[in-house]
């Protein structure tokens, strides 16, 4: 091969190698620049994040900084109303649970009467003296004409509320005894005439709320079971012309077809609802305890039947003996108890599915 052709070939090879080397070096420089720029951005982001976190930390001298206009606005909006000083929480005796926030002292330890808006020292609330014109400063004493709410309430039932004159009268009205906080019984066991004699419990009172709640749960089960047993009572009065004389839809009519016996140590009783009630003491004379029936109550599950017109012998003022039958929800028909509540007045508790 001629020398000049050989040299031309070598020159082309060297040129291609040079061009390739130049491209490789340019690519490396460009990559290095891109990587360097990315690293700088990551470093800058890290620095910014560190500074942000550092700003969030509380500086020991931050309380000296002037708050911004936004901070001032927020502080103003979040400031509690004057009458709602939420610290400390105050437990005021006798207050309606829904109104407890109204019985907090303001920042000056003053109480605002609920209706008259008069301000009195909070220390005068429940001090046994009427300071407010509307009597709202004495929810837990008998000083004023108001209402007392028992501290413990029964779930899913209406609130238990008493007239203030029953507070500390020696008789337990609240299931937790919170109305008798002085724990002093009435003088000589005197029972006010407007109280049911059988249900009276004297102070000091026991907390019976948990027991009452458990009893209510058991009563609910009996109510459901008793409802399922009412069909025979409804059928018995199906063609009765005057059903209302025997309760709703005549449901108690079936009881009027039967007499129920009840015995005590001294007497034997025969209870025939709507017909007659007798007391027998062998070998003595049998007495009628009532033979004319009228309803005292038959609403909201409360069924009281009065049996009047009984014998008058030895009864005060010549009045005839009388019985009051309280029908209670039960799984069978029977007399639960019978006793003389007062002279010639008899109380009878009667269990029946008809009352469920």
TrEMBL record:
SUPFAM superfamilies: Mannose 6-phosphate receptor domain. Residues 47-82 are annotated as: Disordered. Coiled coil: none annotated. It comes from the Eukaryota. The keyword RNA-binding does not apply. InterPro entries: Gtb1-like, Man6P_isomerase_rcpt-bd_dom_sf, MRH_dom, PRKCSH, PRKCSH_N. GO terms for biological process: N-glycan processing. The chain crosses the membrane at residues 12-32. Residues 69-82 have a biased composition (Basic and acidic residues). It holds the Pfam family PRKCSH_1. Keywords: Disulfide bond, Endoplasmic reticulum, Membrane, Signal, Transmembrane, Transmembrane helix. Residues 257-356 form the MRH domain. This is Glucosidase 2 subunit beta. It comes from Mytilus edulis. The lineage of its organism: Eukaryota, Metazoa, Spiralia, Lophotrochozoa, Mollusca.
